[in-house]
Amino acid sequence: MTERREVRVVQGGPILVEGPVRIELPDGSIVESDRFMVAICTCRRSKSYPLCDTSHRKVSRSGKRPG
């Protein structure tokens, strides 16, 4: 039986997955992380996609940058 992992969807943010994880991308490349909790980007703004770098925080829902 496969071990169950906790997955949490954050509204307006990433998907949090209990690590370590191995992510296979559509092009067949693999991204691995040994962290205890991994944030997977859902907005595709991350410079380290598929891992989240909090880029989703830089643009509000109206599309305007804060400040």
Automatic annotation (TrEMBL):
Q: Which UniProt keywords apply?
A: 2Fe-2S, Iron, Iron-sulfur, Metal-binding
InterPro entries for this protein: FeS-contain_CDGSH-typ, MitoNEET_CISD
Chain ranges of the Iron-binding zinc finger CDGSH type domain: 18-62
A matching Pfam family: zf-CDGSH
Superkingdom of the source?
Bacteria
The protein in question is named CDGSH-type Zn-finger protein
Q: Which organism is it from?
A: Mycolicibacterium lutetiense
